[in-house]
Amino acid sequence: MTALRQRLESYFEFAALGTTWSTEVLAGCTTFVTMAYIVFVNPAILRDAGMPVSAVTAATCLSAAVGSLLMGAFARYPIALAPGMGLNAYFAYAVCQGMGVPWQTALGAVFLSGIAFLMLTAAGIRQLVVAAVPRELYAAVAAGIGFFIAFIGLRNAGIVAADPATFVRLGNLTAPGARLALGGLLLTGGLLAWQVRGAMLLGILATTAVGVVTGVAQWSPTAYSVTDLSQTFFALEVGPALRLGLLEIVFVFLFVDLFDNLGTLVAVGKKAGLFTRDHRIPRLNRILFSDACATTVGAVAGTSTVVSYIESAAGVAAGGRTGVTAIVTGLLFLVALPLAPLVGAAPVAATAPAQILVGSLMMTTVAEIDWRDPVVAISAFLTLVTIPLTFSIANGLSFGFVAYAVLRAVRGQIRQTNPFVFVLAALLILRFLYLGSG
């Protein structure tokens, strides 16, 4: 037993990364709690595509478990995966409702995008894209995602609300959910200030307990069985998805997934200190293969594109540094398969404080940006602000990347720049034109 434990600690590089089993397990639990909402949100969205809720619930748990376990065991990163928010809405509302595409055919398009991921990874194309992103933008992406996470947390807490005149305004702080979130924010912030181990998880659990006692957490379990998965398992239709008119759907799934995953990888990897000194990403091929395989498994099981979750940053903030964190998260999703109704007990007001505080912890990377260099400063600023303002990691990274390429060209530094930077910038401009024409 001791020999096996030592081999596992060596495989996951516990000594080099300065971590322990207890820290990794706690971090995995923290990540799971902060992203467990997807077990209910994803089926609620895909229901509008005509998909059976119980089947999608099971598919969500299964795909998240497989993706997280693969990322943890094979790629050895503390990054959990699950069906992506945004892409599930595109699947349900743009593809199925807007274009009238049956959900079975849409699943076929998701499957094709996963296969395309595998082929592009094997050919080294995805690696070229990652290598083309200038290291100056890494810190901006991490900080921008920090703003993004914090904004989502503030919205979920009811601390900020929509406004038709000013877009956002201060929410009703006397509302039960807002009061609960503010109390959780103070509690979790205080635990972090005292450097209490597991502060994030303790804060979420304590806030949830208060929410249940006070009645803020509304929970009504529904009839559910794991066998319901049979309604969507292998229901995808690949043939119809190959039609020329539907290939643009495959491209959107492919493109957005690529840049969302890249942004998450950069943010979480940088915060966890997992990159090399020259900003290279160890085991990049394994990360990309894990992501692509998770998407294909998700399509077969019956859910939209599976992506890396930025909520993984909560686990990293709790001390997670190795793939054990993701493995624990994946195992918890497996446990959630038969117990899915119980997962919804944690109200969003309890997880919102963790999101806000994770966002604040990720802001440390802005100090690494050379604000004296206009090319770097402008590109980084556009990346940083457009991620939260457009509610898209992909859009923010695209804006910053295009700005970087254009400004390098204007400065006359074309020869000193990776040629693929300009190729990718041209493709991103075409993407913006395509989105603008829709």
Describe what you observe in this structure.
There is one protein chain. The chain has 20 helices and four strands. The protein is mainly alpha-helical. The protein has two domains: 2-363, no CATH class; 371-438, no CATH class. The strands form two sheets. The chain has a two-stranded antiparallel sheet. Strands 2-3 form a two-stranded antiparallel ribbon. The mean pLDDT is 84.
Run of helices and strands: HHHHHEHHHHEEHHHHHEHHHHHH
Taken as a percent bin, the fraction of beta residues is under 5%
What profile does the largest beta sheet have? 2 strands, antiparallel
Tally of individual helices: 20
Low-confidence residue ranges: none
Q: Give the neighbour order of strands across the main sheet.
A: 1-4
Helix percent band: 55-70%
* Distance linking N and C termini: 59 Å
- What spatial form do the alpha-carbon principal axes imply? globular
Structural class: mainly alpha
Write the layout of secondary structure elements.
Elements (H helix, E strand, L loop, with lengths): L1 H10 L2 H4 L3 H15 L2 H9 L6 H23 L5 E3 L3 H12 L4 H21 L1 H8 L2 H23 L2 E4 L3 E4 L5 H18 L5 H16 L23 H4 L5 H26 L11 H18 L4 E3 L3 H6 L5 H21 L4 H14 L12 H16 L3 H18 L8 H19 L1
Antiparallel strand pairs: 1-4, 2-3
